[in-house]
Amino acid sequence: MLSERRLQVLRAIVQDYVGTEEPVGSKALTERHSLGVSPATVRNDMAALEDEGYIAQPHTSAGRIPTDKGYRLFVDKLAGVKPMTAPERRAIQNFLDGAVDLDDVVARTVRLLAQLTRQVAVVQYPSLTRSTVRHVELLSLAPARVMLVLITDTGRVEQRMIDCPVPFGEMSLADLRARLNSRVAGRRFTDVPRLVEDLPEGFDIEDRGTVSTVLSTLLETLVEENEERLMIGGTANLTRFGHDFPLTIRPVLEALEEQVVLLKLLGEAKDSGMTVRIGHENAHEGLNSTSVVSVGYGSGGEAVAKLGVVGPTRMDYPGTMGAVRAVARYVGQILAES
To answer: Taking CA atoms, which of 75, 141, 198, 335 is between 20 and 30 Å from 26?
Structure first.
């Protein structure tokens, strides 16, 4: 266990290194921070921190920089989440309130997060498997062709064209629409297959094939693999941190192009709390020089997806965590009201 004073020294090193981009020496620490001890004592504390792997000496200068282990301790013990100011909160709300649909919400969220944190922003679309059905619309396009429109509680809209085995009249379509919505509206997607399995039996024999076809399309829509969509923005922000990436920025950019990697980075939506992965805690080798701050968002207190940012390990963790949390909260409010 580190003493309280050494924790304070580590906090000061992290804050100064993040702010100045320069390795931090004992003299600078005593001048900038009220540590209440001499430079010699600070040097001893820094030597102890280095021995335990919390800081490192990048080259022969007297300065030290935090290691992944040092940042981890800083985030876990020393960094409070920096709250957004009232003007910042109003700016977030005003920017997101102008969104017209789910795609616009996600696009605005990505842009806002990238601007607030000056990092790479990643926003996952609400997962269908964690959503509820708001409404199913069935529209007749031709005697044997129907459009199915699925609307979720998060504002997501999925459309599918259905070729029916036989012509299906407007009256029959209205009947199917009414019966379908009476069973599935307001219900979780995972419950829908059980709720509609006997629905065709209530229709005339000549209509059951079409009803079954519509239900099959609906169930396929609920479980499609391509639902795991996400949007990324602010990649150009990484160019400001070229010296934070030991060899080249290329592995980071290549990793960010892989959607599967990004989804793993954000983690499962059910883990809705704030997650901070630092440096080598990221499984993908190309991201070992980055940190990822993510949190779940959703309506009604349940996360339906995650959003977050990717940046260098030399990151303003309190500010970034505060921005990510604030944006997630506003996005959740918008989904609840949509």
So the answer is: 75
pLDDT given for residue 103 in this prediction: 85
Q: Per the structure block, which two tokens stand in for 167?
A: 């012509």
The CB-side HSE value for 195 (13 A sphere, CA atoms) comes to 17
Alpha-carbon distance of 314 to 244, in angstroms, equals 7
Question: Residue 270 — pLDDT band, cuts 50, 70, 90?
Answer: low
Q: Which of 283, 285, 332 is nearest to 306 (CA)?
A: 332
Q: Residue 24, exposed/middle/buried by CB under 10 A (0-12, 13-18, 19+)?
A: buried
Residue with tokens 């031709």: 142
Q: What is the DSSP letter of 235?
A: G
In sequence order, what are the beta bridge partners of 121? Answer: 233, 309
For 203-212, write each residue's pLDDT tens digit. Answer: 889 888 999 9
156-183 as b/e: b if 16+ CB within 10 A: beeeeebebeeebeeebbeebbeebbeb
State the pTM of this model: 0.78
- For residues 267 and 279, give the distance between their C-alpha atoms in angstroms, rounded to a whole number: 16
The half-sphere exposure of 16 on its side-chain side, counting CA atoms within 13 A, is 23
| Euclidean distance between CA atoms 56 and 70, whole angstroms | 9
Torsion of CA 170, 175, 177, 178, to 10 degrees: 140
Q: How far apart are CA 283 and CA 195, in angstroms?
A: 40
Structure tokens at 1: 């266990």
How far is 314 from 330, CA to CA, in rounded Å?
A: 27
Q: What is the DSSP string of 195-233?
A: HHTTGGGGS-HHHHHHHHHHHHHHHHHHH-GGG--EEEE
For residues 152 and 131, the answer to whether their CB atoms sit within 8 Å is yes
Dihedral, CA atoms, 99, 104, 108, 111, nearest 10 degrees?
-160
- The C-alpha atoms of residue 35 and residue 114 are separated, in whole angstroms, by 35
Task: Return the structure tokens found at 153.
Answer: 């509680």
Length of the chain in terms of residues written? 338
